[in-house]
Amino acid sequence: ATPTAIMVGTGRGAQSGILVKSAEALETAHSVKTVVLDKTGTVTKGAPSVTDVVAAPGVGEERLLEAAVSVEGKSEHPLARAVVEHARARGAHPLIVEGFSQVPGEGVEALVDDRPTIAGNLRMMEARGVDAGDLAQAARRFADEGKTPLFFAQDGRVLGVIAVADTVKPTSAAALRELAAMGVRTVMLTGDNERTAAAIQREVGADEVVAGVLPEGKEREIRRLAEKGAVAMVGDGINDAPALARADVGIAIGAGTDIAIESADVVLMRSDLMDVPAAIQLSRATMRTIK
Ligand code: ADP
Ligand code: MG
User: Where in the cell is it found (predicted)?
Assistant: First the structure.
């Protein structure tokens, strides 16, 4: 496009809260075949809250919440924050926590009053040889409702499941419909489990979903999808930064983390997914002015 067309396009974008950082991004966006979206904080609000608490047979809810508030109190994950807030509201107090560590894509572990305690997904329980028993079925039901089930275990025995739900942003479904109408494929990426991801996919109508993606896996998915044409990646988190940098067009949610914003070519100041199709339309209009 001519410098004038670029200037006009960039200005028009800025007026509607679409900050285009490079002329190249404004030119490339018109040819995007696939838009990849992170789930938590991008398609959903990223402010989860606890919906269900199920203690294992013979385990009191108090004991479950006490273990949960202890181990999750050391985690900065949004899921952990939801659990801590809920447990505190129920009067649970943290015990002594030592040796806290995170297991990427699975959860967290620590010694709580000297007892080995873990919190995470079913994969984590299986990896540690914890039998979830009937709670696995309860967890599947929660996941089918779009909730994320978190398992808690101590001394190798399951204590219970806490389900956490995040709401889809009001314009996510409309934005994905608009992209489909423009002939653009949509793919949702998440570290969350298959069932929860599928429930959210149904709710917003994404063409494809890739669940259980480890932090370094997002960039790999972008490279895979790039074989079929130009890819735009939309994300908000630290985890998304490598994928945002790798994509032909990286689009950051304005309310997201600084690292995501720095890694992106385009920033959506209104944090509204409707501005994704709008950015592609802006690029299409910009490119048309030179033909
Ligand atoms: P995402 O940010 O997409 O959820 P993560 O890699 O951070 O991806 O987490 C993947 C999964 O690991 C979560 O969906 C959850 O099941 C589990 N997990 C991560 N952190 C915690 C935690 N602090 N407590 C319990 N489970 C966790
Ligand atoms: Mg996110």
Answer: Cell membrane
